[in-house]
Amino acid sequence: MEVTRQGFYNYLENLNKPSKYQALIDEIKKIIAEDECNDTYGRKRMYEALKLKESESESGFPKVPSEATVRKIMLAEGLIHKPKRNPKGLTKADKAAQKSDNLIKNNGVIDGKKQSDFEADKPCEKTVGDITELPTADGKLYISILADCFDTGILGLSMANHMRATLARDTVKMAVCLHPELRNNDAISHTDRGSQYTSELYRNFLEKYGLRQSMNSAAGRCHDNAKCESIFARFKEELIYGRYDTSKMPMEAVKQLVWRYFMGYWNNRRICSANGGLPPMVKRKRYYETRETAQIAA
Questions:
Q1: Which of 83, 100, 215, 256 is the most buried (most CB within 10 A)?
Q2: Cα separation of 41 and 45, whole Å?
Q3: Long-range CB contacts for residues 14-23, cutoff 8 Å, separation at least 24
């Protein structure tokens, strides 16, 4: 076999020795076991999750190596996740309705297409909304969200067996109740041109609470609302595909799944690379703590 005698005995000696990264492997597996959706973590989010735990741990946490090493460890352990599919948009543009300006300004060109600016310097400055659907044993469940561009946190969530304007209104209603700073803050509320968002009911509700309506530049321009559509894509990839057959589940059970994912997991525990490896509400909390400290110092 063209192997030296000493090399063979060295191989036998090291065969049952634990990996030098065994402590880190154990931590990676703990992170995956914390939430059912954590098994979708790729090397970047796993690296960020490890760094977050390392920063919060007083002592005893293994030193986190480079992101490339984390990737090698995950590959060796068979822990790398591959995406399954990409969901498509749902809402249909109402071409006859009055439109609102696109207040999400263009932010450069990628692949020949103008990209929208979904960045925000503070919470409740700029929000995006959209609707998606899931099949259930009791018919289709429509899910509406309002997300904050500052930290991708879900501010409002509503679900129903229809996708009328009241569904979109109830989403904003929840958001302004849970986050009063949205009210009369001149915040932007950006959506596509679906009939739910062009309705008088929805427009009047935004006006009542002082939110500025913004819509896609033209029908079918999915990148104009890419941030919200990306949230839904990750939701279905991480929670639904290959994990639950919602078409065989009662609608109320599916509602509970969706609520726990967005309001529990997504907001408070899911690592978000766009937030520097922080869950949305952790980033938001740190923002307000930093601002409060600055005000005290001033």
A1: 215
A2: 6
A3: 21/62, 21/65, 21/69, 21/73, 23/62
Question: Distance (Å, rounded) from C-alpha 171 to C-alpha 89?
Answer: 18
Residue where one domain finishes, among candidates 57, 76, 95: 76
Please tell me whether residues 255 and 161 are part of one structural domain.
yes
| Domain coverage including residue 151 | 106-291
Quick one: which of 163, 173, 124 has its CA closest to 147? Answer: 124
Task: For residues 56 and 160, state if they share a domain.
Answer: no
Q: How far out from the chain centre does Cα 243 lie?
A: 18
What does pTM read for this prediction? 0.83
Q: Could you tell me the two tokens for 13? A: 């000696």
CA atoms within 13 A on the CB side of 161: 7
Measured CA to CA, the distance from residue 111 to residue 91 in angstroms comes to 25
Structural domain count, the chain:
2
The reply to whether 265 falls in a domain is: yes
- Is residue 210 within 8 Å of residue 185, measured between CB atoms? yes
Please provide the size of the chain in residues. 298
Q: How confident is the chain (298 residues) per 10-residue block, as mean pLDDT? A: 78 69 92 94 94 87 93 90 60 58 58 61 94 97 97 97 96 96 90 92 95 76 72 95 95 98 97 95 94 83
CA distance 172 to 178: 10
